[in-house]
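Figure 6 in text form: structure in, sequence out.
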């Protein structure tokens, strides 16, 4: 089972960060308006970032840390990770 930390962009331009072990289902719940209180009424969403972890605690730790960043630091984190994935020959699947 993969544990995922994900970042969605809401239609108002704000970002939502969450954790799940079933990303497709969780995204469908957000899209249906039954997701997190913050995302209700803010869809449709665009996936900004999705990162997989082996354990729940690793994913939740990453989510917690990411949520503490300000927007410029969040953007830098994602750019850095995407560049790292490209150099390693890994490409995000979204």
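Output sequence:
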């Amino acid at each position: 089972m993969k544990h995922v930390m994900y970042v969605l962009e809401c239609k108002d331009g704000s970002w939502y960060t969450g954790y799940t072990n079933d990303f497709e289902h969780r995204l469908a719940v957000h899209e249906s308006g039954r997701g997190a209180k913050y995302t209700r009424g803010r869809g449709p969403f665009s996936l900004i970032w999705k990162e997989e972890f082996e354990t729940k605690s690793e994913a939740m730790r990453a989510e917690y840390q990411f949520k503490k960043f300000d927007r410029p630091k969040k953007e830098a984190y994602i750019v850095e990770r995407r560049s790292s994935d490209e150099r390693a020959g890994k490409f995000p699947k979204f």
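Caption detail: The chain has a mean pLDDT of 90.
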